[in-house]
């Protein structure tokens, strides 16, 4: 069981992430804004943080990452960035901001779990996720 923080302004994406992660027996805290995510990160240690790149009101996931890397209990927590964008410039962010992985939206539940387990160096048992496997193949 992992403790995971999710930062995404879209309720549909947060719901999909929560469903996928809790179905895999993980505990999920959700934040819609950078400020809320910072509050979570300052009060609780996480095994992983999933963070949207483009947020509402001109905020970006980078605003959160800058704060999390300096002002929280999660300075070294792996962060996986989620985004509809995928370019070389965004890939440079991986190095600059110590982002562990970049997942392009839309993604499948199985694809998400594979990336999470790879980032955390945990063996991934796909057979455990028969429902997601069938949905992903449909």
UniProtKB/TrEMBL annotation:
Keywords: Phosphoprotein
The keyword Secreted belongs to this UniProt entry's keyword annotation: no
Residues annotated with 4-aspartylphosphate modification: 52
Coiled-coil annotated spans: none
Highest taxon, organism lineage: Bacteria
Keyword Phosphoprotein: yes
Span of domain Response regulatory: 3-120
SUPFAM superfamilies in the cross-refs: CheY-like (SSF52172)
GO BP, one annotated term: phosphorelay signal transduction system
PANTHER family the UniProt entry points to: CHEMOTAXIS TWO-COMPONENT RESPONSE REGULATOR, STRESS RESPONSE REGULATOR PROTEIN 1
Name the record gives this protein: Response regulatory domain-containing protein
């Amino acid at each position: 069981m992992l403790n995971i923080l999710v930062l995404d302004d879209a309720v549909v994406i947060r719901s999909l992430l929560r469903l996928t992660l809790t179905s895999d027996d993980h505990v999920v805290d959700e934040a819609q804004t950078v400020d809320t995510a910072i509050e979570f990160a300052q009060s609780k240690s996480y095994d992983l943080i999933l963070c949207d790149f483009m947020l509402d009101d001109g905020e970006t996931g980078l605003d959160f990452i800058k704060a999390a890397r300096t002002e929280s209990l999660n300075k070294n927590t792996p962060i996986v960035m989620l985004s509809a964008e995928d370019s070389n410039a965004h890939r440079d962010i991986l190095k600059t901001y110590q982002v562990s992985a970049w997942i392009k939206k839309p993604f499948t539940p199985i694809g998400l779990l594979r990336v999470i387990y790879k980032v955390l160096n945990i063996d991934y048992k796909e057979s455990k996720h028969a429902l997601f496997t069938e949905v992903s193949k449909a």
